[in-house]
Amino acid sequence: MPRADTLICQLKITLKQVEPAIWRRIRVRRQVRLDRLHLIIQAAVA
After folding, report:
1. CA–CA distance from 10 to each of 2, 18, 23, 44 (Å)?
2. Cα–Cα distance, 1 to 42 (Å, whole number)
3. How far apart (Å, rounded) are the C-alpha atoms in residues 36 and 5?
4. Whole-angstrom Cα distance, residue 33 to residue 1?
5. What is the pTM for the complete model shown?
6. Domain residues of the chain, as ranges?
7. Where are the extended beta strands (E) located within the chain?
8. How far apart are CA 22 and CA 16, in angstroms?
9. What's the distance, Cα to Cα, between the start and end of the chain in Å?
10. pLDDT tens track, the chain, 46 positions
């Protein structure tokens, strides 16, 4: 069984009300804190 700190979550982020559709798929460690995830998402769609 994998260790908890090695588990990865894959997220698909889609911007609403934008044509054509803009989306990003990112992978983050499962234990990432919400404030850090916020920064990761901002960097991915910037």
Report:
1. 16, 22, 13, 13
2. 32
3. 15
4. 23
5. 0.78
6. 4-45
7. 8-14, 23-29
8. 8
9. 36
10. 667 667 999 999 999 999 999 999 999 999 999 999 999 999 999 8
